Amino acid sequence: MKATLVGLGSMGFGMAESLLRGGVELSGCDLDEAVLKKLAALGGQPLSSPADTAADTEALIVVVVNSAQVEKVLFGERGAAAQLKKGAVIMVCSTVSPAFATSCAERVEALGLHYLDAPISGGAVKAAEGAISVMASGTATAFSRARPVLDIVAETVHELGDAAGPGSAYKMINQLLAGVHIAAAAEAMSFGIKNGLDPDKLYEVITGAAGNSWMFENRVPRILSGDYAPHSAVEIFVKDLDIVLGTGRDQRFPLPIAAAANQLFTMAASAGMGELDDSAVAKVYEQLSDIELPQKNADEL
Amino acid sequence: MKATLVGLGSMGFGMAESLLRGGVELSGCDLDEAVLKKLAALGGQPLSSPADTAADTEALIVVVVNSAQVEKVLFGERGAAAQLKKGAVIMVCSTVSPAFATSCAERVEALGLHYLDAPISGGAVKAAEGAISVMASGTATAFSRARPVLDIVAETVHELGDAAGPGSAYKMINQLLAGVHIAAAAEAMSFGIKNGLDPDKLYEVITGAAGNSWMFENRVPRILSGDYAPHSAVEIFVKDLDIVLGTGRDQRFPLPIAAAANQLFTMAASAGMGELDDSAVAKVYEQLSDIELPQKNADEL
Fold it and tell me: Which of residues 273-292 of A touch B (CB under 8 A)?
């Protein structure tokens, strides 16, 4: 199979590794020259722009950050959509609004191409293992054309509907919860420290109690180690919660909990922490009070 | 061992069952005559007021709803503290503020009694199985006097400090997270339904994804079945988040996420749902929009 993957960030590169290992003839495109070299070293073909995608590419996999980038990759001046032969599938893995996914699919389908609305989760490690989760929706043809890719990159493929939109909607709900849970974890750890509790003990107690969440368990160790090197950046949740809130606003649907979390991520970004790990929202509480969060061990600095 | 348990609600009664099964000579006190009869049927001794606690009682276990009730049970006109002999232990399992626990312990210790700050979690079923979790702090003597009770009722005893206060502080942080996670679960399910998603499928996708929480997994089935018979009522989280926010206010510590969740529970209580299950906060979104939450199956009505 011949495929192109655009967006070789942490998850995108992991997926590229899996696809190459799975025998896919893979081209890749990214603005970062260094990752293109890494791709070439693994046997992939680096492209200097999406428009260089070969006409006989069967699947275009888009793993860029946001809808503006998806738009540019597909329909921009050096975009890929116009290069593809009829019948090819475009699989968009980026987190975008359901409304964007729907309109993007219409434009893609008007070109005789197929569109799989396919947001992903799992992180870089699972991507490299071929073990991500995909929340997918699209026509039966879109699914069948994307199946060889899905079989290689995913452990779980949720089939969520026969048109674009639901895939992104399920992902949007997941991001609502994930963002709120990170914000709550940061608030809880900071408030516990304010109340004199031992942060490590607090993590132990909560992870064994009803207050636990997947995000608490996953992100709090970063707060405990004081290491805010980005796995997933604060800016990602500014964006993803903006998708949530923008969709709710258009629907006149109230989202008071997501709005509070969005404000916390915005505060962190405002304080210059947008590119730090999303767990750095805890530092908003540190900046606004007399608490001290755990410091990174001097040996590791 | 001779003990008295005050507050035979769902968890209190479960603990009483465990204690009787464990061979404790147990008296019990509650405003509800029906549960006193149930206690008597199991071999417990019903008391008509805390003041009827026998002088040779070694442990007084308080499982009432809030600090006003704890105050009344211990120091009210018909309170128990004055009846106990020096050296007895009072184990307060209610969720109260750390400041209340500290001042209550001082008053108890001034009477020559011991105080274990011992909030609990786990629910009625685990209580009846002797498998609750206790977040406990207190002097070594308070722990040793309470040990026979702890050994019978608890699966996990977190030992969190050598004075009253930390036990309640750890519980407070747990309740912050639990309350936010219930509110987020309600908002997420409601917004998913607004966006046309299948609620059962949404539960399946989220419980297998990074948006999951202990509370999402535990409470959403109640939304899916439309059954809001109270396991734990909306009013409990109005109270518990008030403890969180009151403590934060006294410390001038910002808690924007907990505040948003508290408002959602307050909205539900304002709409007359205070005595429904806490998962009924989802009905706030239903009341404010055109969504329909799942209805209770007609066969079950």
Answer: 285, 288-289
* B150 and B172 fall within a common domain: no
Q: Give dist(CA A25, CA A28) in Å, integer.
A: 10
Q: Dihedral angle at the C-alpha atoms of A199, A201, A202, A207, nearest 10 degrees? A: 130
Partners of residue A166 in chain B, C-beta under 8 Å: 196-197
> What value does the mean pLDDT of chain A take?
97
Give the closest-approach CA distance of B76 to chain A in angstroms. 29
Per-residue pLDDT averaged across B232-257, rounded? Answer: 97
- Cβ separation A209–B206 shorter than 8 A: no
Domain endpoint, select from B147, B163, B179: B163
Least CB-CB distance to B253: which of A181, A191, A260?
A191
Which of B101, B83, B11 has the alpha carbon at shortest distance from B47? Answer: B83
Beta bridge partners of A213: B213
Which residues, 6 or more positions from A94, have their beta carbon under 8 angstroms from its beta carbon?
A: A7, A62, A63, A64, A65, A66, A67, A69, A70, A119
- pLDDT grade for A300, boundaries at 50, 70 and 90: low
Is residue A298 predicted with pLDDT exceeding 90?
no
CATH no. for residue B267?
Answer: 1.10.1040.10
Report angle CA A195, B67, B262 to the nearest 5 degrees: 65
Q: Do A169 and B210 touch (CB under 8 A)?
A: no
Closest CA to B135 of A301, A198, A146: A198
Whether residues B66 and B121 share a domain: the answer is: yes
Quote the number of domains for chain A.
2
Q: How confident is the model at residue B150, as a pLDDT?
A: 98
B175 and B158: one domain?
no
Burial A161-183 (b: 16+ CB within 10 A, else e): bebbbbbbbbbbbbbbbbbbbbb
Q: Which domain holds residue B102?
A: 2-163
Mutate to test the interface with B, among A96, A177, A241, A287 (most CBs of B within 10 A): A177
A170/B contact by beta carbon, under 8 A: yes
pLDDT in tens, A222-279: 999 999 999 999 999 999 999 999 999 999 999 999 999 999 999 999 999 999 999 9
Say if residue A226 is in the same domain as residue A172: yes
φ/ψ bin of A226: left (φ > 0), alpha (ψ from -120 to 50), beta (otherwise): left
Distance, in Å, from the CA atom of B76 to the CA atom of B93, rounded to the nearest integer, reads 18
Residue of chain A with shortest Cα separation from B183: A257
List the catalytic residues of A. 171
Same-domain check for residues A112 and A241: no
CATH of the domain at A89: 3.40.50.720
Interior angle at CA B280, CA B279 and CA B281, nearest 5:
90
Task: Please indicate, yes or no, whether residues B155 and B187 belong to a single structural domain of this protein.
Answer: no
Instruction: Look at residue A299 in the predicted model and tell me its pLDDT.
Output: 61
This model of the complex carries an ipTM of 0.96
Residue A154 and residue A14 in one domain: yes
Question: Does B177 share its domain with B135?
Answer: no
Band (B298; pLDDT cuts 50, 70, 90):
low
Pick from A116, A146, A164: which residue ends a domain?
A164
pLDDT in tens, A26-64: 999 999 999 999 999 999 999 999 999 999 999 999 999
Pairing between strand B120-121 and B132-136? antiparallel
In chain A, the residue whose alpha carbon lies closest to the alpha carbon of B185 is A177
